[in-house]
Amino acid sequence: MLCSSLLRMARKSGTAADRRLAFEREALPHLDAVYSAALRLARNPDDANDLTQETILRAYRFFDQFTAGTNCRAWLLTILYNIFRNAWHRGEREQPASTPEEFAGEIEAQSRDADQSRINPEALLLSRVAGRRIELALNALPAEFREALILVDVQELNYQEVATVLDAPLGTIKSRVSRGRALMRKALCRLDQARGKTGT
Amino acid sequence: MDCREYISEYLAGHADGELAPLARRAADEHVSGCPICRAQLIEERALKAIVRQSVALAKAPAELKSRIRGALDEADRRAAAPWTARLTEFLAPFRALGSRISEPLVWAPAGIAAVIAIAILAAIAVPRRGLIAPPPVPEFELAISRFQQFQHDFVPNVPAEAYENQTGAVYAWVINRDPVHRVADEADSDAFNDLARSFRSANLPDDLFDFAQAGYTITGGRVDQLPDGRPIAYTLYEGAAGEIVSLCFYDPTMAAPIGAVNWLGLRSFYQYKGYSICLSFYPTGHFISILITRMPVMQLMRDVAAADPSGISR
User: Fold this and answer.
1) What percent of the residues of chain A are helix, what percent strand, and what percent coil, each to the nearest 5?
2) Looking at residue B260, what is its pLDDT?
3) For residue A168, which of A104, A85, A71, A47 has the smallest C-alpha distance?
4) Can you tell me the distance from the alpha carbon of A29 to that of A42, in angstroms, rounded to the nearest whole number?
């Protein structure tokens, strides 16, 4: 608490040097996390560098708005996703012409199928799941499910923080995490079956 | 609480420690009396741990760190400079033009007016573009270029040989002998097998979407090579509503890009530069499948759902 108060004082009324020091202590330890997320979004190192730098500079400019004691990584990732989302939406992407509800049922059914324990838990858990296979299964996930899983499991944000970062309702995040894991299990199961068939 | 409710409503939150106290208590009670759901919870937590271990955070390059520190220094320097100094810096190029007025304060109103005017003009005239442009997806760009090409110039090159049996019925195709470049009649299901065999012989996945129920016929298939030598299979489907081109090739590095407008199982659907695209990954072999069309994305989703409701096909 004392530390938080000091940080707040440094940011709001301290010297520029204090402000810089506070920012470096709070934000820069999360640079790898920001860069990793930028790399996943931008898909190439040069753009990831630009995206990371823009995120850090914007965070520095608006550091007064960061609430001390909250998760700085989540705050930085929110800025990062906002920058990226704005750039993306300025592109040529269109919105769907009609609503996709009719397909939600099918997705739901497929997720439920994957949830049922046709998959032997031990076979999955103790199946020496190599990192490469996890990455493959993760990459095969629809991006929105993958982002939610990575933010929860890798960046270690809670659901509310993920909702803020992705600018989506909390219920949507819960659903994406749940369905994302179900789809992951399904993909891993297919990989296991494929390995069994090919002997690879 | 029954097992279905636990798995669909509580499992993920339970594993992530995200349940409210009452829900947490109810979930704990259910799991303590249900070995199946207990196993599911263990699996969910293990999956979470495996993902965390497997997807390590990338290290920011040292060059980027130093660039950021430099940019922060520059921001500090600018913030510390008095506004007149910043204005002087801004106006330096104008002064260099040989103005007879050397006092920067005299330039202040003109400078401010110029900044406002430039900002307004920029907002009106300059195309909106973020710092980071939407990243192009090379695989989608390839699909678009092939779709455009195939719309007016599609020449199947598989199967490589074609023969007629004694009754005159074609049981495989020679492209050069086919004036309309059709692999087979609509009713000729051998088109499927012939194409599948050709793709298989090129070391590519041999399953195809069956869009017949959605009103499409297979116009033909091609096997080509990408510039780096990887084989790639194309299949062209034509129906009253339009054409669908399928591409399948080895791509171990691709991940589904962000921005999908919908999903069907593990398939992601995109609207990209005016095209509707369905992307899916084969569970083995690092192959990807892309379907591309000019039709609305919901139409493509319906057709895909009808053609291949469960498995992964191309």
Assistant:
1) 80, 0, 20
2) 82
3) A85
4) 21
Q: Are B217 and B236 contacting, i.e. CB atoms less than 8 angstroms apart?
A: no
Encode pLDDT of B118-163 as tens digits.
Answer: 776 666 555 444 445 567 888 999 999 999 988 888 888 877 554 4
| Residue corresponding to tokens 């499992």 | B11
Q: Please compute the mean of the pLDDT values over residues B181-186 and round it to a whole number.
A: 43
Count interface pairs A-B at CB distance under 8 A.
244
Of B256, B271, B298, Cβ closest to residue A93: B271
pLDDT-derived band at A27, boundaries 50, 70, 90: very high
Whether residue B134 and residue A93 make contact (CB cut-off 8 A), yes or no, is yes
Please tell me the predicted confidence (pLDDT) of residue B175: 38
- A88: nearest CA in chain B? B134
DSSP assignment, residue A128?
-
**ipTM for this model:** 0.70
Domains of chain A and any CATH numbers: 2-70 (1.10.1740.10), 107-198 (1.10.10.10)
Whether B62 contacts chain A with CB within 8 A: no
Residue-level pLDDT at B94: 61
A158 interaction partners in chain B (CB closer than 8 Å): 16, 18
C-alpha span between B191 and B172 (Å, rounded)? 8
The CATH fold of domain B138-307: Phosphorylase Kinase; domain 1 (3.30.200)
Which positions in chain A touch B16 (Cβ < 8 Å)? 152, 158-159, 177
Give the strand pairing for B262-264 and B242-250.
Answer: unpaired
For residue A96, pLDDT over 50 is answered with: no
Which residues, numbered 270 to 289 in chain B, qualify as contacts with chain A under a Cβ-Cβ cut-off of 8 Å?
271-274, 280-281, 283-286
Q: Burial, A159: exposed, middle or buried (Cβ in 10 Å; 0-12, 13-18, 19+)?
A: buried
**CA-to-CA dists, residue A8 to A19, A29, A68, B76, B302, angstroms:** 9, 18, 6, 19, 54
Spatial separation of the C-alpha atoms in residues B244 and B216, rounded to whole Å: 9
B254 CB neighbours in chain A (<8 A) are 139
User: Angle B35-54/B21-32 helices, nearest 10 degrees?
Assistant: 120
Q: Provide the 10 A C-beta neighbour count for residue B5.
A: 12
Domain map of chain B by residue range? 3-54, 62-125, 138-307
User: Confidence class of residue B285 from pLDDT cuts 50, 70 and 90?
Assistant: confident
Q: What is the pLDDT of residues B206-242, one digit of tens each?
A: 878 888 878 888 888 888 989 888 999 999 888 877 8
Does the pLDDT at position A1 exceed 50? Answer: no
